[in-house]
Amino acid sequence: MRSSQQQIISFVSSRLQNDKPVWLCTILKTWGSSPRPVGAMMACTLDGELIGSLSGGCIEEDFLEQLRDGSLKSQYDTTGGPFTVRYGETEAEQARLKLPCGGQLHVLLEFITATGPNQAVFGKLTENLENHNKISRVVNLDSGEICSDDHSGEDAVVMKDNLMINSLSPMYSLLLLGAGDVARYVAEMALALEYDVMLCDPRPKYLDNWHVDGVETTSRLPDDVVRDHFSNPYSGIIALAHDPRVDDMALMQALKTDAFYIGAMGSERTSAARRERLPELGLSKDEIDILHAPIGFQIQSKTPAEIAISIMAQVTAVRHGIDC
């Protein structure tokens, strides 16, 4: 599973490598109750193969209609490069496109041909995102020329002189420890939230009956898995095994990484006992204080699905910079 941005960039790259031109749409500005945020993208080939979204579907339908009748290409030929379409400027258009009251979108449309430079740029963008590196796509609004910048800002889109700078973020990944019911629900929710998910359980036969489509499983030692794949700021580690042989082995390594979230399931008493054990594994107090335990928001739930909701709510809050 890849993030929306990564899916779209990869899609464009693969189509360009196959000598297919691609329309790429990027939201530049929004007003009111816009359905998608600034920086959201949609890509489409000339034969209508589409990925991403700009709205709940009506803007996409309008785009595909203009693609079919040739008006998009006419506008591109007239401007000689990328052009901006303003959706929802009138009440009639808001009603036609089913935009929320007052919602407006400014969308940049680029027609990207399969030239060598374009193939190289999107190849580099794809490679960086897959390697968990931030990167920006820079578009010259006069000529349509595209290049990359290894730096990425906090704002999804920045307009500077005649340039559009689109900051791209790598996909986030989660490592789940322990093949159980809570892990199953957490995995399903995490996939829906566009995380790349792996489940690790080194205990014999625990993985035999555990399966979620789209989730890689491994029986390798947890500390090795953390060290090799989950030690960057785009990773989260969630210990759900209720077995110190699994959970503590992963936490021993995880709490020394830059992972954005580290949590362990258990009661207040179990969590207190774990905090007493962790210094014996060579962890400092500051490292142990990073741990979210008991895991998740306390919503007095007992069922696996509700526990998973509380966990993913906390993961989401931490990912967006909320201290909890």
Q: Care to describe what's here?
A:
The protein is elongated and about 70 Å long. Helices cover 36% and strands 23% of the residues. It has 11 helices and 14 strands. The longest helix has 16 residues, at 304-319. By secondary structure, it is an alpha/beta fold.
Secondary-structure map:
Layout: H1 4-17, E1 22-31, E2 41-45, E3 50-52, H2 58-69, H3 71-79, E4 83-87, H4 91-96, E5 104-112, H5 116-130, E6 135-140, E7 146-149, E8 157-160, E9 163-168, E10 173-177, H6 181-192, E11 196-200, E12 216-218, H7 222-229, E13 235-239, H8 244-254, E14 261-264, H9 268-277, H10 285-289, H11 304-319
Parallel strand pairs: 10-11, 10-13, 11-12, 13-14
Antiparallel strand pairs: 1-2, 1-5, 2-3, 4-5, 6-7, 6-9, 8-9
- What fraction strand? 15-25%
Please write the string of helix (H) and strand (E) elements: HEEEHHEHEHEEEEEHEEHEHEHHH
CATH architectural category of the largest domain: 3-Layer(aba) Sandwich
Mean pLDDT: 90
- Helix percent reads 25-40%
Oligomer, anyone?
A: single chain
Return the CATH topology of the largest domain: Rossmann fold
The largest sheet, given as strand count, sense and whether it forms a barrel, is: 5 strands, antiparallel
